[in-house]
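Problem 3 from the worked examples.
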Amino acid sequence: MPKPHSKSLFKLVKSLSKSEKRSFKLFANRAGSEEEKKIIRIFNRLEKQKVYDEGRILAKEKSLDRRQMPNLKAHLYLQIMKCLALSAAKSHEMKVTSLLEYARILYNKCLYGECLRMLEKAKRSAIANDTHILLLEILDLEKLALMQTVHEGNETRVTAIINDTDKTARSVQNINTFSNLSLKLNSLYHRMGFIRNNLDFENTRKFFESSLPKYDEKKISFHEKLYLYYSFTGYYFFIQDFRSGYAFAKKWVTLFELQPEMIYRKPEMYIRALNNLLVAQNKLYFYDEFRTTHRKLILLKRDTKFQKTENINLNLFKTIYIHEINRHFMLGEFTAGVLIVKKLENELNAFIPKLDKHTVLIFWYKIACLYFGASNFRMAVKWLNKIINEKETALREDLHSFARIIRLISYFEMGDQELIEYSIKSTYRFLLKKGTLQHYQDLILGFLKNSKQYNTHKRLTVAFSEFKEEMEKLQSSRYEKRAFIYFDIISWLESKIENRPVEEIIKSKVRKKIT
């Protein structure tokens, strides 16, 4: 095993639960050697530290030699991993892997008949769990073992193995193609958000259609369907066809619910399926369906049969809470949503180090929009600044762009003309540099730039009305309407024209949409 980076060891120690730490100390103490005692002392020091500081460990533990530290840290890392592997609940894949390893041991002992019997057991388990890659390994070893035996039924068995291998190889190829498609689309979405123009659409459509292999949906396996529906859902979301995306997300969830045992075997993919269905239901304002799907996630969290690793807990946390925020958006209940955020903030801060940067940006953006909807513009700016000050602007360029636009509108609401003028220039520079300046954004920037000219309430109201008419024309544009997914500027303009809170305007609209 390569020597781990010191920060990797520190993160691993910090990720352990109380019971895991206790188990490790018992595990490491079993030999009672001097080396084991040293790694436990390092472990205890790391456990207490908030920030990794090797110098402090060496200062406190005089018996430790700086020259020994790289080897001791590598040994500590390995021992923690061994302890976790022993205590981890065995997944179906791990059980099949164990059977395959036993079969290899028997093969190497020249016990070919016993090896074949063990492989039969492994094969049944692999087929039942739809684990095609492991099944290919089993079939490969079965071929070798069969060559070492001579039996009357060998010819029949050879034919069966060849057929099984061909069928499994095709399934693996399909799974690989579908999952690669999903991965590529995810990568594009994480970089720029939804498609921006006709060139984006044509490039995406050609790439997707040319990458799809020939398949018969009725004949392919569970895992092939899983990744097929995943790739189609991602494709339709990316091109903003939420109705088609909804249809495939629903098929994806139904696939699991027709084979409920797979929910427990592939929990992360089931959570992902529910998440995608919730996204579609949210965009289409299918509120009753949304609540039912969200309830499934909450019940999953409470299900005692459900094996909850830290990874699963993290996925449940981010999916449940993002869609709890979305529920308040659907209802236009921004003030109530802000209360949820206040309750969640400590938990969110605890999870942030474990969350991927993409999810963190989404949380920050949604929280900022909740505060904006609740007319708390200073708090909206606080959360928007988290996005704007983030150095990785190549990730979700769309959120970085719209964070700047909403911050400008928040400055307008706060009456800070000086900040508006300064930020307009920096926003223009950012959008032009990223090549993301669209007509929607250009109109907003132009309006805010000229806003100081409207020195009476009447003139300003007329300007708002004229600006609203211009924005409404963009809603019928296939690609400009994308902008309204990020920020409902029409409702904000109506609130200024009618002199009513934006929350009140949006609430009245969403009631009609939900009905």
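Problem 4, a separate protein:
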Amino acid sequence: MAIAIYYDGECPFCKRYTALLRLRDSVGSVRLVNVRDDSATLNALQAEGYDLDQGMVVELEGRRYAGADAIHTLAILSGRSGLLNRIVARVFRLAWIAILLYPILRAGRAMTLFALGRERIAGNSVEHQSLFTVFSHAWGLLAYLHLLYYIYYEGSTQVFWTTWMIGGLGAYLTVRARSPRIFVMLCGLLMWDAWQQMPVFSNHTILRNFVLLAIAAAAIYNLIRGRNWSCFMQSFAPIGRCLLVIMYVFGVFHKLNDDFLDPSVSCAVALWQTMPPPLPWLDTEWFRWLAIYGTLIGETAIILCLLFKPTRQAAIITGIGFHSLLALSGYGFYPTFSTIAVALHLLFLSPEAATRITTSIQSAILRGGLGERKGQLLTILWFAGMWLLMKSGNTSSLGLFWLPWVVWLIYLVGKYGRDLNGEKTLGPTLLSRPWIMNVISILFFFNCITPYLGLKTAQSMNMFANLAVEGDYSNHLLLRGKPGPFNYLDDIVKPLSGGSHVWAYATGEGLYLTYYDVLNILERDRNTVVSYERAGMVHENQSYATLESEIDRVLHPRWFRNWFLFRPIDMRSPKPCSLSQ
């Protein structure tokens, strides 16, 4: 009996598997063919529909077996010598076990080849790789800003060793954006760091975490299916684009309220007034109205234009420009949020447009300059400048220091980013073909609509929108009355004394808290003693010990509360723009 095994010579598992089974002891002639060294055989197998990236192909008596069938066939033909050989042969002799375990083996093989830096047989599409390069370039800068945010920004949480590694890898990826392995390592660290940092109130954090969730889901799905990096981008890119559109939709919808449209308190005006000179000099009555309605109309236009090919390039440029302007405001630290938005806008580029950008003469000159000492010195000074400005608390100047990077991107997108005839975005625009991936978009939409359901108010993309939905009241133009069906926002408390940082902040600013949040604070810090007013009654010297039964009855598990967060509540009317937003 003669048997031929066609395998990937770069795969250590494929080379060792036949040796383990000792086929020559039982079948005699075994012909091993490394398809990387035999292009004619590889082309013939591919023409017949066999994918050697999915696993080996076994030819026996004129019939060919691939994947799980190949492993099952080899197990049947294997010898009985050696304990490990007998175990493997016995396990995979059962066809149903081979079918069940094969996706796991295929995923392990794919991870090993990826970790070793070995190219898949089919290779990756140059265009898909270019889109990844453009996205990972922006994602790397986000990671560096992530480090600065957690070190210096007021109200940030503990800095872990992972946070420091994220900053270093992010800086490297910003400059060397063509490394999938560095990208995967960075995303893994970001996910681990996100888990350690929870709970965090910021909107950029929840958006970043959903993007990370999409990256992880796409990676796991394509590893299990044995697919390459191009397939990963096809799965991930539509979800990234959908998250951006949902962000814009709620960025507009939350602002449709009485107080955002009031120039005396609108956040659009407050953010403009803290721009670097000479921009605040335009703070006139007519310009305030322009800032308010310009924000609403501009964000709505970006949403619509992103969805249609003829206007997509203009929408990408306008969206990046809009968020670059936001990053200049000294009202808060926005470059992190703006950089996430920039990265997601870039996913709307067609793969061919991304290739034109990455292979352009301008990009080549920049890469060449970064390889020289002067370029490396300027890069170090740029990263160091952002660090020093963040340390000084001058977030507006940091935005100005960050701005040349965005101007460069806008120039490249403007010159090369137009979709030519026949060019399309990677995969469907907003829906990923693996249907399970779209659950992430649905969850993000639900996260953003929670304030109107009477659920959480933090991390809902309620970004300085003057929105008020607490205490049986809503200032939203379309959703008046009490939010529901849940009632977490009905029961509000006025802090009086004691408590942690959040409690002291709310007390000093005259803000309120939800009762659920009060119980959450006391459960997390069991030594805290507070006094507050609830439903007209003053409760003094309350702590975990005095409210333990109430805490056990009301609160969800901590892992759930890491996502279930409430902003301090400003009960003034009209509601001014404040950091409680």
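Solution to problem 4. The chain is about 55% helix and 5% strand. The beta strands are 2-7, 29-34, 57-60, 63-66, 492-498, 513-514, 530-534, 537-542.
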